[in-house]
Design a protein that fits this description.
Two copies of one chain form a homodimer. By secondary structure, the first copy, chain A, is an alpha+beta fold. Chain A has helices spanning 2-11, 18-29, 36-46, 52-64, 128-132; strands spanning 69-72, 78-81, 88-92, 98-101, 115-126. Chain A has two domains: 2-81, Winged helix-like DNA-binding domain superfamily/Winged helix DNA-binding domain (Arc Repressor Mutant, subunit A, Orthogonal Bundle), CATH 1.10.10; 88-132, 2-Layer Sandwich (Dna Ligase, domain 1). Chain A contains five helices and five strands. Chain A is globular. The mean pLDDT of chain A is 93. The first copy, chain A, binds a DNA duplex through helix 4.
DNA sequence: TTCATAATTGAAATGATTACTACTATATCA
DNA sequence: TGATATAGTAGTAATCATTTCAATTATGAA
C-alpha cells in the first residue's frame, strides 16, 4: 500500500516522503473533504512530530500537481478533496457535512470570452438525513 | 437618494441608520464584490468613526434580509454583492477581478433528495482583458 | 423629558494561514 | 565511505479575517 501511494506520487512528479505518503493516503481513504486541521488532528496520532506547516506545504503541492483539489465554503476555510474528477458539493447547513454531487453543467452555457480553468459549484441547504429528522 | 435607500431598507424589515444607509448605498453603487475591508477603507473616509464591527453586523443583517448576497472565493474572505438575482461569478487568477456571469444551470440536473436553498458557482481562470495582454 | 431598547464602537480574543529560521533526511559525487 | 549540497520538515512568530464582548451613543415610545 505504501509502495502504491509512493508510486502514485512519483507519477504525479512528487518526491515521496513519510509525511506526503500519509497525507495522500488520508485523502484517498477519507471522503470527508477535510481541512488542514482535520488532517492534523488525525495524523498527529500516528506521526506525533507532524507539523501543520508540512500539511499546508504538502496539500499545496498535491493541488499544484493535480493529485487533490481544494475548495472553500462559507466557513472561510479551505477544504481538500481526493476526488479530482469534476463534481459539485453540497454543504448541509444543519449538520455541516459536505457531500459530493454531480455537476449540473451544460457546455454551451458557460460565459463567453473567459478562459475558464476550473469551476467551484457549492449548494447550500439541508441534506436528506437532516430533512428526515426535522 | 437617502430617503430612497431608507425606504428600501424599511421594506426589507431593516431599521435604517446612517451607517446602514451608507453601507447599502455602497453595495448598490459598487459592483466590485467588495470585502468588509474594501468597504471599510472607502466609507471611513466619509464616516471616520465607522467601525468594522458595524460593517460585519450590517452585512450579516442585509444578507439575512435578502438585501445583499455573500460568497467566498479562494482568498478565504467573504465577498458581498448587491445583485441578489441568481448568477455566477468569474474570478480572474491574473488581475483578481470578480465578474458577474450568467448561471449555467439546467433545472432537472440538480442533486435529488437535497433541500437546496442556494448555490454558489465560481469560475476561475483568465478574464478577457488579461487574456488579450498575455 | 425620561427611560428602555437598539445600534455602534473599539479593544481583545480566536482561528486559519503564511513567513521564517533552524533542524533533519536524502542524494550526489569525489 | 564521507563530505556536502539540497530538499523536506518542524516549530514558532507574524498576519489577516472574523467574532466576542463590554461600554457608549442614538433612537423612539410613553
Amino acid at each position: 500500500m505504501i509502495t502504491t501511494i509512493s508510486k502514485f506520487l512519483k507519477e504525479k512528479g512528487i518526491t515521496p516522503s513519510v509525511q506526503r505518503i500519509e497525507i495522500m493516503r488520508f485523502m484517498l481513504t477519507h471522503k470527508t473533504h477535510p481541512t488542514v486541521d482535520d488532517i492534523y488532528r488525525e495524523l498527529s496520532k500516528s506521526i506525533p512530530t507532524l507539523s501543520k506547516t508540512t500539511i499546508y506545504n504538502t496539500l499545496t503541492l498535491l493541488c499544484d500537481k493535480g493529485a487533490v483539489i481544494s475548495f472553500t465554503t462559507d466557513d472561510n476555510t479551505t477544504h481538500y478533496d481526493g476526488v479530482v474528477e469534476e463534481h459539485a458539493h453540497f454543504k448541509c447547513k444543519n449538520c455541516g457535512q459536505i457531500f459530493d454531487v454531480p455537476i449540473p453543467m451544460i457546455n454551451n452555457s458557460e460565459p463567453q470570452g473567459f478562459d475558464i480553468q476550473n469551476v467551484e459549484v457549492t449548494y447550500y441547504g439541508i441534506c436528506p438525513k437532516c430533512t428526515e429528522y426535522q
